Structure formats: structure tokens, C-alpha cells
Amino acid sequence: MSERLQAIRGMHDVLPERTPFWQHLEDRARAVIEGYGYREMRTPLLEPVELFKRSIGEVTDIVEKEMYAFEDRGGDRLALRPEGTAGCVRAAIEHGLLDQPQRIWYRGAMFRRERPQRGRYRQFHQIGVEVLGLAGPDIDLEVIAMTRRLWQALGLRDLRLALNSLGDGDERARYRAALVKYLRAHEAGLDADSRRRLETNPLRVLDSKNPDLADLIAAAPSLLDYLGEASRAHFEQLCGGLDAAGIVYSIHPRLVRGLDYYNRTVFEWITDALGAQGTVCAGGRYDGLVAQLGGRDVPAVGFALGVERLLDLIDLSALDPSPDAYLVAPGDAASAAAPGIAERLRDAVPGLRLVMHCGGGSFKSQFKKADKSGARLALILGDEELRNGTLGCKPLRGQGEQRTLSFDALISTLSDMRRVG
Ligand code: HAM
Prior knowledge:
Elements: H1 19-34, E1 39-40, E2 46-48, H2 49-56, H3 61-66, E3 69-71, E4 77-80, H4 85-94, E5 102-111, E6 123-132, H5 137-153, E7 160-165, H6 169-185, H7 192-200, H8 214-218, H9 229-244, E8 250-251, E9 263-270, E10 279-285, H10 289-292, E11 300-306, H11 307-313, E12 325-328, H12 332-348, E13 354-356, H13 363-372, E14 377-380, H14 383-388, E15 390-395, E16 403-406, H15 407-420
Parallel strand pairs: 1-5, 7-8, 12-13, 12-14
Antiparallel strand pairs: 2-4, 3-4, 5-6, 6-11, 7-9, 9-10, 10-11, 14-15, 15-16
Helix pairs in contact: 1-5, 5-9
The structure holds histidyl-adenosine monophosphate (HAM).
């Protein structure tokens, strides 16, 4: 026997029994996001490596260690996208979309070569939103309010909103100088990774997950003390808007995010239910990125949520992806007539989930398959039903006698069933 091949570590198949849960989340998310007037954009999975270096930042874990980057046969340096913001901005610049504000959303697979564990995969999926061309705290509030509405639509409680402002470039530069001074004074307490970051990207030290550094980081200077008047006003207006909307948040002065393009508002939605990978959604403002990638100097804000992490949290027990009915048709004449009858039923009952038995077999074996399919009804087409223009209809879940129904009566039974859900 030849050796069996397996999926790549950290990359998962979504089997048919799980896809209804994905579709549920995607449908709900799409309805909420499009309800705010956002339009979907689809960009390639592969982009030039340079795009991610220039946006996410050279000295970030994603770019330094996690990108699937390679040279293609023509010698071009490409990478599987590790996130969606950079491609979205590239496309907006390339297609001249920046003359007016854009509200864009996207969904799809992202790739990071991280160490796989629960909630952390090498291929994972995001649903994200990017607003290009709006500067005020009102739009920051809109995207955060949208995330809260998403959690409500998905039946999620117990998510915490962590909020911070990173200020603008010069404010961050002043903060950076103060932070470097502080970290140098405590260099002996740093681990190797943080010492390296101290040289290359000191703000990232605040993002260290090493518990031994927690106290040192907690005592570090706070970015919020370095905000200028305009950044402070932006942040205060956002906080006021959140208060007015009843959106509960807490300010985390050391929340810096793992990508370099952010300024001013940053936020994360966090749960305690998923262990170490507790951030289910993250985003913020990135006013400099569009210009940095060669576009007009327009402000921007957005977020992305992790589909796998959210699916791990949502109670999906009430979702029933089973078919409505399974058509059993033993015998040559009935099995020859079954496809036509199944099509007529599908014409008559929009959205009907009907499985037609294929492959012959006795009544008993077909009926067993009907039961196993999880369908709520078995529809039985035998010689007698065929002669009389009727169908047998037997409930497979719970009690209920088999009844013989005319075609019209069956259509109204199936229609009622779909309406009730
Ligand atoms: P991010 O924080 O890198 O931000 O990722 C956003 C979310 O994607 C995370 O909060 C998490 O739920 C999920 N995620 C990230 N990495 C993994 C992984 N390896 N396995 C499973 N889930 C993961 C961004 O990607 C930004 N582009 C967000 C953004 C959009 N900011 C502005 N606009």
C-alpha cells in the first residue's frame, strides 16, 4: 500500500459535519457587517513579501519568524498572507479607491508559521473590517460597536474589551526613549528575546508573554502619559462614546499589538475561556499605512476576528444541519421515478433540504440510511404510492405515525416544516 499523506501540521480540514457551524458564524457576521454598509473585498492569498515587510514591520514576530515566504519559479519573492489589512490597503491604492471613504470587509484564510496549539494554527481564518479615509473617534466607535453587535448576534457574553492609545509617531518616539531608558536600567531582569527587542523594537518588550517579566513590564512608563493634546482628545472622545453606548471597556496602557502599523486607538476582545490564546478579535487605527504603501495620506481603522477561536466559544448545540427529508424509493419503478419527484419537491419548497436515496437496496436498508442521515422525515415512494400519486411520510424524530399524503398535502407539510425551522 502506498504511504498515506497528511495535512500540514497546524492546517485543518473542516469536515462536512462542522461546516454548518462555520457557515452560521459567517452568515451572522456578514449580516451584521453589511448592516453597517460595509462591502466585501477579496484579495489574493499570495502577495509580494515586501508588502508585509513594509506594513507589519521588519522587526515583528510575524515577518521575522512566521511568514510562509518563498521564491517562485520566476524568482519573485512571495508570501502567503499572514493577515488581511496589508492586501486590502494595497488593493485600495492600486484600484484608486481612496477618493472617498471606504468601508470594506473580508474573510478568508491567513497563514503564520507559529507553534500550533489550541486556538493557534498555521492556517487560520479571519473576518476583518477596514475603513479607509475617516479620521475621527466616531468611526473607531462604529467598528467597536459593530464587534459588540457581532458578539450579541453570536450569543457571546463574557468577552472583555481592552483599549489603549498608542498616540502618534512623535509621541511614540518620546515614549520609546523613556521606555528604553527604563528597560536599560533593568536590563539584567530581561530575557534574551526582550534584550534583542530592546535594541530593535523596544515597544514589543511590553508584549512579552514571559511571566517572569510581568512585574517589570507593569512598572514600565505608561504610553498614555506621553500623548499629546490631539491624541488625548481623540482617545477621550472615543471613551466618552463607548460610555454613552454602554460598551464596557478597560484601559490597558501596555497593550501595544504585534504589528507595527498602529497609531492611536488599539483594542482587543479577550476571553478567559480559551487559555493562552484568549484574544478573539483585535484591531485599531493605522493612519500612516496607506501613505507608507504609496497611496494618498488617508487615515484608517479596522479589526479582524479569529474564526476558529470564536467557534470554540459559541454554543452551537441548537444548530441542526440535518436534512428535512430523505426520499426512500425501493424497487425499479419507484427508483426511476424518484429523481423527477425530488426535483418537483425542490421546485415547490424553496430551501428544502432533501436527500434522495441513491444506489438501490431493499426498503429496510434504505430506511436505515434515512434514519442515519438525521432527517426529520422519511418520504416513502413504493409501487402503490407511485400508482396513486401519493407519498408515505414517516417522522423519524420522536413519535408519529406514518401517513399517506397527496403530493399537494406533502408540499404544505414540508413548507410548514421549513417555516417553523
Ligand atoms: P492580529 O491580532 O494579528 O491582527 O489577528 C487578529 C485575530 O486573528 C487574533 O485576535 C486572533 O483571534 C486571530 N489569529 C491570529 N493569529 C492566529 C493563529 N495563528 N491561529 C488562530 N487565530 C489567529 C491582525 O491580523 C490585523 N490585521 C487586524 C486589523 C485589521 N487591524 C486593523 N485592521
